[in-house]
Amino acid sequence: MRAVDLIRKKRDGQELTHEEIGFLIKGYSEGAIPDYQMAAWAMAVYYQGMSARETADLTMHMASSGDMIDLSSIRGVKVDKHSTGGVGDKTTIVIGPLVAAAGVPVAKMSGRGLGHTGGTIDKLEAIGGFSVELGQEQFFRQVNEIGLAVVGQSGNMTPADKKLYGLRDVTATVESIPLIASSVMSKKIAAGADAIVLDVKTGSGAFMKTLDDSIRLAKAMVDIGTQVGRSTIAVISDMDQPLGYSIGNALEIEEAIATLRGEGPKDLEEVCLILASHMLVLGGKAENEEAARAILQEKLASGEALERLKMMVEAQGGDTRQIEDAGLLPKAELHVEVKAEKRGFVESIQAEEIGVAAMLLGAGRETKDSVIDLAAGLSLRKKIGDPVEVGEVLAVLHLNPPFQDRLEEASRKVKEAYGITDEKVPRRPLVFALITPEGVRRF
Ligand code: URA
């Protein structure tokens, strides 16, 4: 087999076999196939696409290129949740404890943030002493004992995806639905879950800016899961504005805790309840979404979900006093208000711009090696649909003195992110569609 023949075959719109895709992925991982050939193949895929079968084959070859985590020593149906990245998305920190309290084991591997999106692992590290590195035995034991553990990704998971994603990033081939779908799903499959709930974001802060593209991506991922024997469903949720009001690591932990107390923002609570309901159904703990929601609401109201977060924090070495009293979480020294210059109604909030502003203040990474400030970030005061007067506060910036030279740029970004109109603005839906193996249900 020769790489050049497979590139030509894909360039001409033909389907590659399981073996041919395996040849490319193995050859590329081992260095036998050079970057320039893999880049040419990725560009051919960008233009020609891949069949559902090819996409599933690519996923499995990438999943098996490194460690495949075997979760079979954990009792019960392990259901994973994956969000495709957004701004202010702290759903894992709410949903993990919530579904664990309802009896679905959560053995979760999460990532760090890069650019305008945050990462769950960074957020959890805002809790003093919290360790995101557990040995595998301890990880399994903790999930068996308390139903919940969240750790960073292991060093050698999906190396083929890592290498290919890096190449796509610099060859303008990221924006290909089969390549994104296989990249995301290879990591989920290697992480070992029996079932997967995907939260595919749509809108200005998301990878996919339009609903149709988001549905296409979700369908591709659900197809992969179904083909490889993992029950998979996807919810398309709004990322046309940040989720909740807080952006930044410690700030998001505080908001997640408030949500677990039943005192969080309603948009965040609702998205968490929807995703968690699907997890309960796939995990066999509820007959349907309505029954699942009733269980989850009871777990919030009784304080059991919050208690489960505390148990995880304790088990992973974190300071549980910060969960009881969020005032003890890291706090920035400076607070600067961004005020409206126009009266009217908030029509749009460019989530990506808000994410970039938070990054400038130190909450996120500009490059993989940037050091982040766990206390930095933004608290929004206005969301889409809210009325606003001239001089009213749109958002508060939280920062520490080393980042003061970024203040002007961050303030400008926040101001520009807000679109204000004279007309009253209807509230946006939080979820737009549900994708199951049976089809697409638009709401
Ligand atoms: N996230 C991934 O993990 N892979 C992609 O290709 C795009 C987003």
UniProtKB/TrEMBL annotation:
Q: Which PROSITE patterns match?
A: THYMID_PHOSPHORYLASE
Q: Does the keyword Acetylation apply?
A: no
List this protein's GO terms for biological process: pyrimidine nucleobase metabolic process; pyrimidine nucleoside metabolic process
Q: List the SMART domains hit by this protein, alphabetically.
A: PYNP_C
Keyword Transferase belongs to the record: yes
Residues in domain Pyrimidine nucleoside phosphorylase C-terminal?
345-421
Protein name listed in UniProt: Pyrimidine-nucleoside phosphorylase
Q: Which InterPro entries match?
A: Glycosyl_Trfase_fam3 (IPR000312), Glycosyl_Trfase_fam3_N_dom (IPR017459), Glycosyl_Trfase_fam3_N_dom_sf (IPR036320), Nuc_phospho_transferase (IPR035902), PYNP-like_C_sf (IPR036566), PYNP_C (IPR013102), Pyrmidine_PPas_bac/euk (IPR018090), Pyrmidine_PPase_CS (IPR017872)
* Assembly and interaction partners: Homodimer.
Functional summary from the UniProt entry = Catalyzes phosphorolysis of the pyrimidine nucleosides uridine, thymidine and 2'-deoxyuridine with the formation of the corresponding pyrimidine base and ribose-1-phosphate.
Instruction: Print the keywords alphabetically.
Output: Glycosyltransferase, Transferase
The record's NCBIfam families line, in alphabetical order, gives: PRK05820.1, PRK06078.1, Y_phosphoryl
Report the cofactors.
K(+)
Recorded catalytic activity of this chain's protein: thymidine + phosphate = 2-deoxy-alpha-D-ribose 1-phosphate + thymine; 2'-deoxyuridine + phosphate = 2-deoxy-alpha-D-ribose 1-phosphate + uracil; uridine + phosphate = alpha-D-ribose 1-phosphate + uracil
Q: Can you tell me which family this protein belongs to?
A: Belongs to the thymidine/pyrimidine-nucleoside phosphorylase family.
